[in-house]
Amino acid sequence: MTKTEADKPTRASELFSSPTTDVILLSLDGVAFSAHRVFLMEASPVFREMLSTLQPGAEHESRSLPSLDLSEIEEIVDGLLRWIYPCPNKPATDTWELLESYFEAAWKYRVDVAITALQERLNVFVHRAKSKSTPVRAYGLCLWLRDTCGLDAPDLLTLARKSIIRTDTNLLQMDAVTLKRLTAMDVVNLTNAQAAYRRRVDRILSFPKSWTFSYRCSQHTSKEDRMPPWWRAFRSHLLTKAKNRTAQDPLFSSSFLASWTELVTCLDCRGQLTCAESEFRRMDKELLVLWETGTGGDLVCWEIKKAV
Ligand SMILES: [Zn+2]
């Protein structure tokens, strides 16, 4: 194929420009990387194959070296080469975009050293999830790695799944980039598990039928409505707290109970709240079991249902 002026490399990579090299890698955006066949062939069976069939005629004009046209941009080619070469400064993968692009390239060329480094990086991303979209992207990436690359990371997949289900992350409101590796079935499955988890939280935090108070306030609690006046607002606050927490901290901390006790001005009603502490501890314990095991009745949230 004859190269036009526009196809020529616009510049050479600074880091990969040694005069001892014997092949040129051309990035999609026209940057020439001078490389050593022996490094490429050792690190990647795909490069080995490509270089073994490289036509001697396809030469890079300025250096008279054979060249390979790659479909990755400069940043990605540079990153791959840093992993392949014994460079001290390995690529920084601090965004999802980079992490995913590197993963795709590393997998395409089967550069094991890069794949291993990226898996470690993904692990850090999932464990330090800062936004609600992180677990969703991680989940999709783990599924892609498992189904396309055969690189199964069940612990990471489960962790990402738990993080999505335990919070009120609304998958249907996430952007297309975040959801790009999830199928409609994945989204349905996650949304259903999330709803089941939420129903279970709702049930644990419901007003117990057997709940009797020694300090039942006759002024504020009628026979028809057995619930104390503070209960509804209290519960709604707890539900929000339960759905938004990212760590299993106790819902009914002593500071939380103290602040609510202060809000209840009627002394009898306040007595009800104080007497209910053992019930609150029971609720916290049940929530903890749900958080850890994901088991809510028949539903096992943490299990990934296989498509039939
Ligand atoms: Zn009262």
Protein traits:
308 residues; alpha/beta; two-stranded antiparallel ribbon; 13 helices; elongated; disordered N terminus; binds zinc ion
The total beta strand count reads 7
Describe the main β-sheet briefly.
Answer: 5 strands, mixed
Radius of gyration: 29 Å
Task: Report, as a whole number of angstroms, the end-to-end distance.
Answer: 47 Å
- For the biggest β-sheet, the strand order reads 1-3-2-5-4
Q: Tally the helices.
A: 13
Associated small molecules: zinc ion
Which ranges are low-confidence, i.e. pLDDT below 50, for 5 or more consecutive residues? 1-5
| Domain module count | 3
Shape: elongated
Give the class from helix and strand content and strand pairing.
alpha/beta
Please state roughly what percent of the residues sit in beta strands, choosing from under 5%, 5-15%, 15-25%, 25-35%, 35-45% or over 45%: 5-15%
Mean pLDDT: 85
One letter per element, helices H and strands E, the order comes to EEEHHEEHHHHHHHHHHHEE
Helix content: 40-55%
Domain BTB: 21-85
Protein name: BTB domain-containing protein
